[in-house]
Amino acid sequence: MLPDPVRRIVEEIGSDTRSGAMPLAQRALDAYSLLSELSGGQATAEELHQHLEHVQPWMAAVINVSVMGREIAASGRWEDLGRLRDRLAAARQEVAHAAMTPLKGCGTLLTISYSTDVFEALRRLQRETPGLKVYVCESRPLREGVALAQALGKVSVNAELVADAAGPSIVPRCDAVVTGADSLLRDGQLVNKIGTLGLGLACVEFGVPFYALMEVLKVELVNHQILWEEESRDPGELSSEVKALNFYFERVPAKLVHSLVTDVGVMDTSSIMNRFKRAEDLIDFYVPGGPKPQP
Fold first, then answer.
1. Is the distance from CB of 127 to CB of 200 less than 8 angstroms?
2. The domain over range 4-88+278-286 is classified in CATH as 2.30.110.10
């Protein structure tokens, strides 16, 4: 049985409707770190993994961190949790650095929701492009875009909030659309906040490049597949007066994405998929010399 403090972290991850994939993956790592202090048993680590792989089933980063945490526990090398934490903390800056290549010279951009990768990239781009203008789709129903626009304003980025429905009409004004990603599925589709698909379609129509920023931790592995289903959330977030379908996430076909900007660099979907297929591929990248997954 999981210790109560560890179980509470798992419950917090499962009930969190606002945080992105990477902050939730960090919380999953917190659960393993706490487990190492409280028990350190391999059997309990396996139980923790079984819980974590279901709490946010559409977020590959949470599942993959759990897989790596389980293998670290099985090896008894708990110190590797610290190495993994340091690498994940650095990954956001690596994504932002890689984004400067495709975004160089872009003066007007459009984004949606609140991606920490996008925030870091735009903050860095502002230093090179003082007149940078960013349109931010509000991202209904929880309006995470409002928080992103506020955060960008605090670092002197000229950010303007727009309604989600207006996003595709804003695309022709922009040099590029840049979003985050919650997962990259094995068939090449992105999973991201509802409204991303419409922006991708508009990019194709108007000839505007669409870049998705993400850590490779978000790649779905061949032996740890995401159990994707379109889940309608609390309809009261949209209306208490009529029936409502309230989807948080949607899939975006690979053909709509110009490039993936990752902590490995700027790559196409097939290259990412070929390099990162199994847990050992992620372990080799994030924890070199770390434990090898059990057969």
1. no
2. no
